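Supplementary Methods, section 5.1.

A reviewer requested that the exact input to the structure prediction be made available. We therefore reproduce it here, unchanged from the version used in the analyses.
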Amino acid sequence: MGEIFTFFGLISENHDFLFLTHMVLAALIAIVLARVAMSNLQLVPKGTQNLMEAYINGVLQMGIDVMGKLHAPKYLALVATIGLFVGIANLIGIVPGFEAPSSNLNMTLTLALSVFVYYNFVGIKTHGIINYFKHFSGPVWWLAWLMFPVEIVSHFSRIVSLSFRLFGNIKGDDMFLAVILMLVPWVMPLIPFALLTFGAFLQAFIFMILTYVYLAGAVIVGEH
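The structure derived from this sequence is encoded token-by-token as follows.
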């Protein structure tokens, strides 16, 4: 989207520079929100603290629904951080003059690889490498020769699923917004902006819940 005006484009129009600056901006906004929420903690929360506590409670409840009360709190920090970062990265692309870093495959693929490596690491740490990979063989031992490669392919496909789903949806939203702004540059297209905002939150939610699902499959596989 080099032909679209961005504020950082006034410094350099290099696409790598634009991607990195917008990604750093999203990370800084997330850090500032967290610091502001924790700067003056009160028993009765209000303002940013109230907003962040509602968000954290929502993410925790999501985790409890997926993997139970015992395991969900262990991974709350990871999933909540990913969700906040991805949500902000999606939302800033809706603001004219900014570009969503999540519309770049470099970011979404990095996040997907991080989740992939982490949940496999946790699974191996929890059950041991032999027991962890043993469940890839399925419940019927004589079908292990078929199930094991299928499971391996299935797990690696999660990288594609996580990265391309987020990238494709946000990239499509960016292109849709660019067309809307070119057609009606002087009139605020409220309905498209509302739809794009909903889509930004939805994609962050999907990324979080899939992360919880993959962690649950790795951690509590031995309990089923």
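The chain has one domain: 8-223. These observations are discussed further in the main text.
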